[in-house]
Amino acid sequence: MFESHHVSRHFEKRCKQSERQNKKKQRSLKKQQDRRRQRQSSPQGSAQRKVVSKQTRRRLARIVKRLPKLSLAVHAASHTILAARATTGTGADHRHFLPLLEKAVARMPLRMALADAGYDSEPNHLAARCELGVRALIPATIGRQSSNPPKGYYRRLMRQRLKGGPDKRRYGQRWQAETVNSMLKRNLGSACRARSTVGRKKDMLLRAVTHNIMILAKMQD
C-alpha cells in the first residue's frame, strides 16, 4: 500500500504545535466535556452518536477505496521487478497472483514462485503447476483455522511441506519481496503525487520501471 497524498515536514511540525496547544487547553475545556457527556447520555445524544459513527464509516470507506496498492512479482536474487499490477483499495490478493505470474514467466523462465499467504488459493496452485509449469509455495492459512487439514490437494500439501525441511528454508526467500517494497518507498517515496485514480496507478508503475533502471545502472557500475 502507498499513501494517497504527501504530507510535508512543515505540516507535521504544525500538527505537533497544535497538539501541544490543545493539551494546555484541556483544563479549561473540562467543564464543556462534562456537559457534552451529559447530553450524549440522553436518548437524543445516542442518536446523534449513531449518525456521526455512520458518517465516519462512510468517510473511511471512501478513503480506503482510493488507497493506492501495488502488487509485485520480484526476482529474489537480483531484486528486479518482473511484473507489477497497480490497483486501488484493499480487497483480496489471490486474484492478482495469476496475472503477475503469467507476466513474470513471459519475461524469464521460472521454476518456483513464493507467495504471501494472502495469495492462498487452490486454483492458483493448479494454474501455476498445470498451465505455467511453476511450482508455487503459498502458506495455506486462508479460511477457518482448525486442526483439520485444508480442503484441496495442494493446500494440504502446503501445510505439510512448510512445516519444516527444504521447502520451509526456500520460502524464507519470499522476504526479498518486502526488501523491494522497502527500496521503492525509501528511494522513490511512499506517497503518490497524482490525485486521480488513473494517475496514481501510472505513478506506481513508473516507480517500478524506475526501480529496475536504477538496479541496471548499479550493475553496470
Structural write-up:
It is a single chain. The chain is mainly α and 221 residues long. The protein folds into two domains: 15-65, no CATH class; 68-220, no CATH class. Helix content is 57%, strand content 10%. The two termini are 31 Å apart. The mean pLDDT is 84.
Reconstruct the topology from this structure.
Elements: H1 9-24, H2 30-41, H3 43-65, E1 68-74, E2 81-88, H4 97-107, E3 112-114, H5 122-131, E4 135-137, H6 153-161, H7 166-171, H8 175-188, H9 197-220
Parallel strand pairs: 3-4
Antiparallel strand pairs: 1-2
Offer a quick outline of the entry.
With 221 residues, the protein is mainly alpha-helical.
Name a few traits of the molecule.
221 residues; mainly alpha; two-stranded antiparallel ribbon; extended
Q: Strands across the major sheet, in which order?
A: 1-2
The rough form would be described as: extended
- The secondary-structure class comes to mainly alpha
Main β-sheet, in a few words? 2 strands, antiparallel
- Overall pLDDT confidence: 84
Helix content estimate: 55-70%
Figure out the total of helices.
9
Low-confidence stretches: none
